[in-house]
Structure formats: C-alpha cells, structure tokens
Write a structure and sequence with these properties.
The chain is an alpha+beta fold and 55 residues long. It has a single domain (3-53), classed as lambda repressor-like DNA-binding domains (434 Repressor (Amino-terminal Domain)), CATH 1.10.260.40. It has three helices and two strands; from the N terminus they run H-H-H-E-E. It has helices at 3-7, 11-18, 26-38; strands spanning 41-44, 50-53. A two-stranded antiparallel ribbon has the order 1-2. The longest helix is centred in the middle third of the chain and has 13 residues, at 26-38. This is HTH cro/C1-type domain-containing protein. It comes from Methyloceanibacter caenitepidi.
C-alpha cells in the first residue's frame, strides 16, 4: 500500500510525522487511519489492544 496515495497526505508530511518534526492535525490523522483500515488493518482496543489484520 502506498500511504501517500491512499490517504492523500504528502510523503514529506508523513515522514515529518514519523521522525517527530511536526504533529499531525486531527483531519490528517483521520485520513491516514482511514487509509490503513481500508487496507485491512484493524485497530483493536479493550481485551486485545494493538493492531491486527482483518479476517
């Protein structure tokens, strides 16, 4: 998956977040999260904290 293409967030912006050079806006986090969950990743909570692939 190409996160830049799937989320509409520029590659440089994503890289800046990853290295802590800037903090994302809420809308950007929503876009990135939607792209990741759209690719089949499930963010879990409660009894199974973490992430896993959707079945």
């Amino acid at each position: 998956m190409d996160l830049e293409e799937a989320s509409g967030v520029a590659k440089k912006t994503i890289a800046d977040f990853e290295r802590g050079a800037r903090s994302p806006h809420n809308r950007t986090l929503v876009d990135i999260c939607a792209a990741i969950t759209g690719a089949g990743v499930d963010f879990t909570n409660g009894g199974e904290p973490g992430v896993k692939l959707k079945r």
